[in-house]
Amino acid sequence: MVEHDIIHLRGLEFYAYHGVLPEEQRLGQKFIVDVDLYHDLQSAGISDEVGDTLNYAEVYAEIKGVVESGPYRLLEHLAEQIAETLLPTFPCDEVRVEVHKPQAPVPGLFRDISVEIRRGRKG
């Protein structure tokens, strides 16, 4: 496995109802997800066949399904659910999931609050 081959999905935006506060679960807000899929891309680079890589549309659909389900209270739990869905569904060795909550109910000025996890294939 060539560890530096990565497929990036960046800035996936969803509207969902996650959060600890009842208002967050009732009103909802925007969540942004970044995902890296660690997978050997050499075969696809040589063959030019989609069957030799990971189908980005299918990956997106799986992420969307997780984010728009729930509600989840914690970003950590949402990120974990995304990783637990992607790893058994796609033949990648590792995933990095970052979930951003730009309108988190935190007093103060900030651009973004996010949680990042990395999970590898078990076994």
In short:
32% of the residues lie in helices and 28% in strands. With 123 residues, it is α+β, with helices and mostly antiparallel strands.
Question: Care to describe what's here?
Answer:
There is one protein chain. With 123 residues, the protein is α+β, with helices and mostly antiparallel strands. The protein has a single domain, classed as GTP cyclohydrolase I, C-terminal domain/NADPH-dependent 7-cyano-7-deazaguanine reductase, N-terminal domain (GTP Cyclohydrolase I, domain 2, 2-Layer Sandwich), CATH 3.30.1130. It contains 4 helices and 4 strands; from the N terminus they run βαβαααββ. It has helices at 22-27, 42-47, 56-67, 75-89; strands spanning 6-16, 29-38, 94-100, 114-120. A 4-stranded antiparallel sheet has the order 1-2-3-4. α3 (56-67) runs antiparallel to α4 (75-89). The chain is elongated, with a radius of gyration of 16 Å. The two termini are 16 Å apart.
Compile the SSE list and pairings.
Layout: E1 6-16, H1 22-27, E2 29-38, H2 42-47, H3 56-67, H4 75-89, E3 94-100, E4 114-120
Antiparallel strand pairs: 1-2, 2-3, 3-4
Helix pairs in contact: 3-4
